[in-house]
Amino acid sequence: xxxxxxxxxxxxxxxxxxxxxxxxxxxxxxxxxxxxxxxxxxxxxxxxxxxxxxxxxxxxxxxxxxxxxxxxxxxxxxxxxxxxxxxxxxxxxxxxxxxxxxxxxxxxxxxxxxxxxxxxxxxxxxxxxxxxxxxxxxxxxxxxxxxxxxxxxxxxxxxxxxxxxxxxxxxxxxxxxxxxxxxxxxxxxxxxxxxxxxxxxxxxxxxxxxxxxxxxxxxxxxxxxxxxxxxxxxxxxxxxxxxxxxxxxxxxxxxxxxxxxxxxxxxxxxxxxxxxxxxxxxxxxxxxxxxxxxxxxxxxxxxxxxxxxxxxxxxxxxxxxxxxxxxxxxxxxxxxxxxxxxxxxxxxxxxxxxxxxxxxxxxxxxxxxxxxxxxxxxxxxxxxxxxxxxxxxxxxxxxxxxxxxxxxxxxxxxxxxxxx
Length: 420
What we know:
Blueprint: H1 4-9, H2 14-28, H3 34-41, H4 45-58, E1 61-66, E2 76-80, E3 86-92, E4 96-103, E5 108-115, H5 122-137, E6 145-152, E7 156-157, E8 162-163, H6 178-185, E9 189-193, H7 194-206, E10 213-218, E11 222-228, E12 231-232, H8 263-267, H9 269-281, H10 289-294, H11 299-307, H12 311-335, E13 339-343, H13 351-364, H14 367-370, E14 374-377, H15 384-400, H16 402-405, H17 413-416
Parallel strand pairs: 3-6, 6-9, 10-13, 13-14
Antiparallel strand pairs: 1-2, 3-4, 4-5, 7-8, 10-11, 11-12
């Protein structure tokens, strides 16, 4: 039998490995009774019973209701005790902060948000984030925080949790995002690109653990989250999927990153606002003209104008979709995904945007790469990045670092730190 010493140090013995696997089988719903666990793992009845008792003793599993009988006595189901800890997710965008609290099964319990300019810098931004975290924790203060996930609108070195030369985040390069949250909550903290969280949210929603999927977020900025066989591809320095700064042929538009001709400078939300205002000043006929005379236009107003049939808005949205589709087609040829999900504010333009993207992708991609490809809009749910953040935390806690902390009953920062 596994000794206390072995459990305390998380040694990878067969007994420890089978114990952790059983917890995860129940957690994911793959096996929820002792007989089912025996069938899946090949372990004998006595061994399964012993491991389940240990998992219950550690507090990971609990007894559930009686399941369906297959002829004999009905087996009692097991349940993962998702209520024993909380996950905090902080999803930061270029112009907003969204904070949520979930149980260990990813169920969103509380969430809130506020407008915020990410360029105000890391210290003020983290202070604002902490205030929102206090708000969502108000009703759940007695349940310990097991993990924190922070999503940022720029490249992130996942191992260190530090932003890497983010184009729209002055003052953030190399900033230690992780430590303030670790110090506050005494819990492991993972920092990642915001689009990666959205891609993981799609994986969870589709219940496809082996998804080959690209999530393209097209709003004030442009980025892509790349899932290969269910795993996020981040690249060597966290820059994978940063398609917003791919060069557009023949473009001379100035980008916010300082370069010329980036996709973002041609097809993003702020680029469309710029082009719409310029066209109206030059005399273009549009329902948005009245707004431009009074104040700056917003991307939301352009997408609403598309829905009402405004010709200028439709022309601009189609132009954005065409150029974005050309870049996405290169990703299709390289990664051969089965699904492309279009999200972000531009996606709210609906079929006008999506149809143009589809046309360009199918025109420019290899027939084999598009044979079974689905291109669709994301679910219009503001909680999607929160679900994706919870998915990241659960993956890191139970698939990656579980052996290092399970004997303590809950994770702590020093036991789950991502190796450099």
